[in-house]
């Protein structure tokens, strides 16, 4: 992991035409790994607790968050988390009764109590850890040399074996590649393909809103779909009725022959 951090940051620095001090970079990478190890050992939930869902649903307003976890600046965190979604940000911060769902309140309390303690983590390491997490999440888009990869696990996707009898379902084909493009149109096509692949329902909603923008057009669509569904159901009814009638006539014919 240390080598991965060093390699990723060097590639990022090359895009900015910067030359990093390798000794400082190595030490920062070691500190990031050590901090990540500390979080995994002391601030992660065990499997038994994960099965209890009370820890996952704890509604709090932003005032309650600020009072419960004062070492975390929620008025700074929320705008950073929402990014460029200004309408969402306005609703979140403009409504004092808006409820945030807090997961792991016990672990969050532990982190809140330790933040600001230099024996827990230095400010430099904490900032490096947060920003490196962002860089690593988007490292596929860096201009990696052909012989290198941003991560040895980047091309793998988690999958679970099916439970019960295997179903013959054609596997979904991934039609995009997360990488750096020099051509803008190729980048846009790939971005659109990724959103369709990862957010199918959101994309369907955007498509419907674009094709049927008014309420009248949606009512018309609903009526047309209802007519098609009704014709299918009526057709199935006639097929079943005809089959039953044919069976009755066959029985009558057999009885007459006897």
Biggest beta-sheet profile: 2 strands, antiparallel
Major sheet strand order:
1-2
Oligomer: single chain
Rg from alpha-carbon coordinates: 29 Å
Q: What's the rounded overall pLDDT mean? A: 79
The span between the termini is 85 Å
What is the percentage of strand-forming residues? under 5%
Q: Which range best describes the helical content: under 10%, 10-25%, 25-40%, 40-55%, 55-70% or over 70%?
A: 55-70%
How many H/I helical runs? 11
| Low-confidence spans | 150-158
Global morphology:
extended
Strand/helix succession = HHHEHHHEHHHHH
Strand count: 2
Structural class: mainly alpha
Write the layout of secondary structure elements.
Layout: H1 2-15, H2 22-42, H3 47-50, E1 59-60, H4 62-68, H5 74-82, H6 86-94, E2 100-101, H7 105-114, H8 123-137, H9 184-198, H10 200-211, H11 215-257
Antiparallel strand pairs: 1-2
Descriptive report:
By secondary structure, the chain is mainly alpha-helical. Among the domains are: 1-45 and 118-143, no CATH class; 52-103, no CATH class; 215-257. Helix content is 62%, strand content 2%. It is built from eleven helices and two strands; from the N terminus they run αααβαααβααααα. It has a two-stranded antiparallel ribbon. It is extended, with a radius of gyration of 29 Å. 3% of the residues are buried.
